[in-house]
Q: What sequence folds into this?
């Protein structure tokens, strides 16, 4: 292990969110990296972000050589990310070399098959701004201009070698024809690239999903496999490094109230502050009501709470809460509550994740509720949905707040699985809400399926909902099969209890 570390190549931190994690530190220093992908996969954005982050986070200047887009168009296109290339260029932080086809005669002045003039221009730009980073964007645009593609490959190899001698780290973007074909359209990778990144933009279940894979890092270690990423107008390319997430979250013995006193007693004093709670039940069992209690408990303590709503509007949630004497409007005005309501289909799961993370970091709540988490399953594939849940729960635990997720089960009266996508293993606590049909009367039952790190009540408690919210009452006795949705009596005592509750005689029941 020590010998391999001794020979590990030095790496240049890119500053691109998530990339330095999956690359174990960044791009190999003073080497060239081919970024290959189909149209719309994010190659140019990734490359230009590499230059911008160099200036903003590492005080390293850069050079952009554009082969396809005119400099004016390039600067205009990235302005939506908040990157002011015009100012960076004017301030001598990033130089732009125009090698577009319109400048063809100037680019090959030394001969029809010689790119020496281009290399001279690149070298002058590097020295002018003292660049440490270089981007060659869309070099594939060179090939249609020449009859012999082998000559272009040879010249690009010569340029890449010269850039290494100049002590710069280079990204070369190249378009590929399809997601599973060759790495580069004109077979460039084996000639110019020490490293290869593959960007994919696949269509999965009528939804686009971008991923990045480090296919090759010559002489350097990196994480294996594909990683989802999104192109976001606030941050550009953001990679979600799921396999790089470490189980090093903090743990606390502090408890917080669920907002339902009887449930706190069942939990041994409330939820752990930095735990993830899953409330699972069929539609109408009271999951959103439990969320309302949970949020009220924070508001009454003067703590901030964040609600991510995926199925009900803010106005509907506020109205329903008021029916249970919870004033969401006043809490929002006091800065104790923030409600974000939007349909999951409005964006991809990676974008939802970034949006929620930003809201957490900006608002800094003590607890968050997502109602309902299962609604987000519609916005992606089972794999991407599980990745979304893992990344979200990891971030919540990292910042040390309490998270409560609701999940709607597909079966009305029970079911063999708590969640269809098996996210229950990620959570610290599971609360089951079930309908219980007894003697023609629909009742509700609550059970704590698991609670990590502490003892909890194993009983199935009945709960009722009135104008003040949820109240847990007595335990179901002499009845089994509640969780499976087929309750049956063992003795007559439960029937007597039912008669007492509803004020009728046994004969009437």
A:
């Amino acid at each position: 292990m020590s010998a391999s570390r001794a020979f590990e190549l030095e790496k240049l931190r890119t500053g691109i969110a998530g990339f330095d994690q999956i690359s174990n530190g960044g791009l190999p220093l003073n080497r060239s990296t081919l970024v290959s992908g189909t149209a719309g996969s994010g190659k140019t954005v990734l490359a230009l972000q590499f230059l911008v982050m160099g200036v903003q986070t590492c005080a390293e200047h850069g050079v952009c050589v554009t082969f396809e887009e005119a400099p004016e168009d390039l600067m205009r296109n990235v302005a939506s990310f908040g990157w002011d290339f015009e100012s960076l260029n004017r301030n001598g932080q990033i130089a732009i070399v125009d090698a577009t086809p319109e400048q063809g005669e100037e680019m090959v002045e030394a001969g029809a098959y010689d790119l020496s003039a281009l290399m001279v221009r690149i070298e002058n730009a590097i020295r002018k701004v003292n660049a440490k980073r270089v981007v060659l964007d869309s070099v594939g645009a060179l090939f249609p201009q020449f009859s012999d593609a082998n000559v272009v490959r040879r010249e690009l190899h010569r340029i890449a070698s010269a850039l290494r001698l100049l002590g710069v780290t280079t990204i070369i973007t190249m378009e590929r024809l399809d997601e599973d074909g060759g790495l580069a359209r004109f077979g460039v990778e084996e000639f110019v690239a020490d490293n290869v990144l593959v960007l994919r933009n696949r269509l999965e279940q009528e939804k686009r999903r971008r991923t990045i894979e480090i296919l090759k890092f010559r002489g350097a270690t990196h994480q294996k496999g594909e990683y989802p990423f999104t192109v976001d107008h606030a941050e550009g390319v953001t990679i979600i490094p799921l396999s790089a997430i470490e189980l090093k979250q903090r743990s606390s013995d502090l408890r917080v109230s669920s907002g339902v006193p009887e449930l706190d007693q069942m939990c041994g004093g409330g939820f752990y502050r930095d735990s993830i709670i899953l409330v699972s039940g069929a539609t109408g069992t009271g999951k959103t009501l439990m969320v309302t209690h949970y949020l009220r408990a924070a508001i009454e303590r003067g703590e901030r709470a964040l609600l991510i709503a995926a199925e009900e509007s803010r106005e509907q949630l506020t109205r329903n809460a008021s029916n249970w004497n919870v004033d969401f409007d006043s809490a929002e005005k006091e800065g104790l509550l923030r409600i974000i309501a939007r349909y999951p289909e409005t964006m991809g799961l990676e974008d939802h994740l970034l949006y929620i993370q930003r809201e957490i970091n900006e608002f800094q709540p003590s607890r968050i509720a997502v109602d309902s988490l299962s609604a987000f399953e519609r916005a992606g594939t089972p794999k991407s949905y599980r990745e979304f849940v893992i990344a979200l729960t990891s971030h919540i635990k990292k910042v040390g707040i309490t998270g409560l997720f609701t999940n709607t089960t597909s079966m009305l009266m029970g079911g063999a699985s708590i969640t269809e996508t098996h996210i229950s293993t990620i959570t610290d606590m599971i609360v089951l809400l079930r309908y219980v049909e007894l003697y023609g009367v629909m009742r509700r039952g609550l059970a704590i399926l698991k609670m990590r790190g502490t003892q909890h009540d194993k009983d199935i408690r009945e709960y009722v909902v009135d104008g003040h919210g949820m109240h847990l009452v007595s335990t179901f006795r002499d009845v089994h099969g509640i969780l499976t949705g087929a309750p049956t009596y063992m003795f007559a005592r439960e029937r007597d209890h039912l008669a007492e509750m509803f004020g009728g005689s046994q004969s009437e029941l």
Notes: Confidence is low (pLDDT under 50) at residues 1-6, 103-112. DSSP finds 16 helices and 24 strands in the chain.
